[in-house]
Amino acid sequence: MIVSVIHLGLVELIYRWREAVLMAGIIAVSILSVLLLSAYQRGLEDRYAHASDSYLVVQQSGSMGEIKGSRLPAGTAEQLTKRGVSLVVPQLHTIIGTSPENSVLLRGIPLETYIQVEPFRIIAGRPLKTGDAPRHAMVGAGLAASKNIGPGSTIMLRGRPFTVIGIFSVGTYADFEAWIPLPEAQRLLGWDSDVSVFIVPSGEGLRAGDGLPGGISVVPRGQAAVSVLAEWEPLFQLLGLVAGVLALAAAIALANMLWRLAWLRRRQFAILGSLGYGRLELTIYLLAQSAGITFLAYALGLSLALVFTSFSQIQGLGLSLKPAVSPAGAVLALVIAAVIALGASALPALWLSRYNLLELLRAET
């Protein structure tokens, strides 16, 4: 009996295929919005959500030293050593360029110690090492791809040519950085001996949240990235609300369509009811139609999201953000589609169940 009811519902849907396709397109918009929102969140997290429990960052208070840079005197290293820190690695972080389109994330690194605190893998060429010429640079894989450069190429940094000797990958926003020897970075910016941050091991006399004289604070490594994600969070919450409103509107529109289709077949429902079909079968009939439409909408929305994200990226401030449809995002969109299907079929089923057989049989054809 249930199989026959499902068959009747799907046959009616095929008969009304124009309305079904139109409604699937409307629902696909809300599913697409959920998938794209999740894809951009995933892209941001892939770039920034990487924290380290092994190291701390000493920086100017209130700054994002690991990305935009702060400025500390070299003498800060002596304070850290007196606090019992065994390893102090100075670094210079800044953004150079004349516009967001041509900006580059620059990092100055001490060639003697940077490998101890920087996990990376070389994709091409070799890493910087002690004794290299001042105008040598390592370039992240993302930056190398965007500028179409490789080992032996030249990259211009603040108007000065640097020879690329290696392409590296970290898996974070660092893939869009250019690494050069620290003294050369200081000369490039005119910073004398100043640096942006000091990387120190955690648990050696310093803890996250400690403050030092001169407006200096100690934060977990990766805190700057967490701050970037936090800046985007209100926007994602707003877009999530918009996506929820779209899903609610799609559910109401689908419920209205199913009600209309069911009302056109109300005499048939009455006849089926007289043959022993009850409210459960009516609900399954409507649910089959609702599931058919939302499944089509989900397939359409997922396909559009995959196509869109394969060609879309946000470029600016020295890095490129690539959205990615994740399995979690696809499952979330599927759950939302299922909720739309259940809610849209429940409302007309509840309404039609209020009519008795005599009222439906008197309905004009």
Write the layout of secondary structure elements.
Layout: H1 2-15, H2 17-48, E1 52-60, H3 76-82, E2 89-96, E3 104-109, H4 114-117, E4 121-125, E5 136-140, H5 141-147, E6 154-157, E7 160-169, E8 177-181, H6 182-189, E9 197-201, E10 211-212, E11 216-221, H7 223-264, H8 266-274, H9 279-311, E12 314-316, E13 319-321, H10 327-352, H11 357-361
Parallel strand pairs: 3-8, 5-7
Antiparallel strand pairs: 1-9, 1-11, 2-3, 2-9, 4-7, 5-8, 6-7, 10-11, 12-13
Describe the overall structure:
The protein is an alpha+beta fold. Helix 2 (17-48) crosses helix 9. The protein contains eleven helices and 13 strands. The longest helix is centred in the C-terminal third of the chain and has 42 residues, at 223-264. The strands form two sheets. Strands 1, 2, 3, 4, 5, 6, 7, 8, 9, 10 and 11 form an eleven-stranded mixed beta sheet that branches. Strands 12-13 form a two-stranded antiparallel ribbon. The model has no long low-confidence stretch (mean pLDDT 80).
Brief sketch in words of this structure:
By secondary structure, the chain is α+β, with helices and mostly antiparallel strands. The protein has helices at 2-15, 17-48, 76-82, 114-117, 141-147, 182-189, 223-264, 266-274, 279-311, 327-352, 357-361, and strands at 52-60, 89-96, 104-109, 121-125, 136-140, 154-157, 160-169, 177-181, 197-201, 211-212, 216-221, 314-316, 319-321. The strands form two sheets. Strands 1, 2, 3, 4, 5, 6, 7, 8, 9, 10 and 11 form an eleven-stranded mixed beta sheet that branches. Strands 12-13 form a two-stranded antiparallel ribbon.
